[in-house]
Amino acid sequence: MKVLLVDDHLVVLKGLRFFLQTRLDIEIIGEARDGKEALQQVEKLQPEIVLMDVIMPNMDGIEATKRIKTEHPDVHVIILTSSSDRDHVLPAIRAGACGYQLKDVDPNLLEEAMIAVMDGKTSLHPQVSNQLMTHVKTEEHDDSFHALTLRERDILKHITYGQSNKEMAAELHITEKTVKTHITSILGKMEVQDRTQAAIRALKHKWFEK
């Protein structure tokens, strides 16, 4: 995994590099101190994963994430910050982040989160998940679920389980290409940008609870 570190605190960058460079599957290819520099580094270095802080000078991590996902949709952005405030969590998810971890996360769990997003899954710190489920305001009316076909509902349910495209394809006995086609349709009907937002909405509305 080629990783770009983005944080305005040098001590954080040093700590992340110290841990991650000991992992055989992780290659730290660069660092950035703010959102603007992150955009430049992503363009130049083409990382697979960006570990992104939120509160930074010049351009914050949320705006940087949004622009990265627009210009480089295949880059996986994991927010790594000290704040689980919903005013940061929700905009980050909407911007396209596929993970949101807090800086107190166990280093081994951070590595697991990185592996998960590379496998097409989402990765949220438990405290962040609780914030989303507790504080996100539920829309009064949402017809998007009824617009989904039975197969699309099945795919969405598996997305909420955190399964990758490969895992869904194996369990549902269809090809990964077919899974991707269904997911594209689901995102369009739900008017969301990515599978993370789709999963959060499904969980929020308790669509798959018995």
UniProtKB/TrEMBL annotation:
Cross-referenced SMART domains: HTH_LUXR, REC
SUPFAM superfamilies: C-terminal effector domain of the bipartite response regulators (SSF46894), CheY-like (SSF52172)
Coiled coil: none
GO cellular component: cytoplasm
Modified residues (4-aspartylphosphate): 53
PROSITE patterns the record matches: HTH_LUXR_2, RESPONSE_REGULATORY
Domain Response regulatory: 2-118
Annotated InterPro entries: CheY-like_superfamily, NreC/VraR/RcsB-like_REC, Sig_transdc_resp-reg_C-effctor, Sig_transdc_resp-reg_receiver, Tscrpt_reg_LuxR_C, WalR-like
HTH luxR-type domain location: 141-206
Compartment annotation: Cytoplasm
Keyword terms: DNA-binding, Phosphoprotein, Transcription, Transcription regulation
Protein known as: Response regulator transcription factor
Organism of derivation: Salicibibacter halophilus
